[in-house]
Amino acid sequence: MNAFPNPDRPIVTCTAKRCDGCAVRDRIHCHFCARDLLHFLLICFPVLLVGGAGVLVVGAWALVPWAVIFVGFFGLIEIRVMCSHCPHYAEPGGTLQCWANYGAPRLWAYRPGPMSRAETTVFWIGIAAAFGYPLPFLVIGARWFLLALYGLLTVGGAMTMQVSMCARCMNFACPLNRVDQEAREAFFACNRGVAEAWRE
Question: Could you tell me the residue ranges of all domains in the chain?
Answer without folding.
Answer: 34-199
